[in-house]
Amino acid sequence: MLTKKQIEHVQETMGEMFPDAECELTHSNPFELTIAVLLSAQATDALVNKVTPGLFEKYKSPEDYIYVPLEELENDIRRIGLFRSKAKNIKKLCQSLLENYNGEIPRERDELVKLAGVGRKTANVVASVAFGEPAIAVDTHVERVSKRLGICKWKDSVLEVEKTLMRKLPMEDWSVSHHRFIFFGRYHCKAQSPQCPECPLLEFCREGKKRMRKKGIEV
Predict the structure, then answer these.
(1) Among 140, 124, 118, which Cα is nearest to 174's?
(2) Which among 55, 59, 106, 92 has a CA at the least distance from the CA of 77?
(3) pLDDT reported for residue 217
(4) Tens of pLDDT, residue by residue, the chain (219 residues)
(5) pLDDT of residue 214
(6) In CATH, what number is assigned to the domain containing residue 68?
(7) Which of 130, 190, 208, 216 makes the best surface tag, with the fewest CB within 10 Å?
(8) Residues of the domain holding 145
(9) Domain endpoint, select from 131, 151, 178
(10) Domain identity same for 65 and 110
(11) Closest C-alpha to 209, from 218, 142, 147, 193
(12) Is 117 among the domain residues?
């Protein structure tokens, strides 16, 4: 497991590699962000961003989603995986917003997770990006990078990864580190084709060292 000083080095290196890391989902307000993050489950941000411009032009409020037929909404997001269940969740979420939150996205994570289709990761993204609250949303990239670099254990659950990162990273760095971990995993330390030979963090990466040794390269 990495020491505090080593984790600081990891943060600094990722910051140098991706100084402009931020949420890549297209949105202009907390409501649009919540819908976009909900749609991004088991889908890429790039695909979601192809669908949401037209979606957000057509649906501007919770009422718009509620009154449209379910089949029409399904058709609007058909290119995204799990579109049927996501369409149902969007309508349920919007109904709840009108009934319980005056049509507004709540700021509190305990309230966010009560919304249909909003899990812990989505709630953390919305709290951090939309409302500036310190949070670490653990997606597949954050989990993979944290485990490869030895910040977390291979057997850790997603929740355990989140708690470990919250414990090991300064609270003021949670949100920015979350984005840097995502960019590092999305564009450098990829699931299938990680850029191990050029990686400035290879010395900490257990999997990377194994990959290099298999190629006959000692690290």
Answers:
(1) 124
(2) 55
(3) 77
(4) 889 899 999 999 999 999 999 999 999 999 999 999 999 999 999 999 999 999 999 999 999 999 999 999 999 999 999 999 999 999 999 999 999 999 999 999 999 999 999 999 999 999 999 999 999 999 999 999 999 999 999 999 999 999 999 999 999 999 999 999 999 999 999 999 999 999 999 999 988 998 888 887 776
(5) 85
(6) 1.10.340.30
(7) 216
(8) 4-18+141-214
(9) 131
(10) yes
(11) 218
(12) yes
In the structure encoding, which two tokens stand for residue 50, read together?
């192809």
Q: Which two tokens stand for residue 142?
A: 């954050």
Give the residue from 84, 109, 131 where a domain finishes. 131
CATH number, domain at 179?
A: 1.10.1670.10
* Rounded CA separation 61/46 (Å): 23
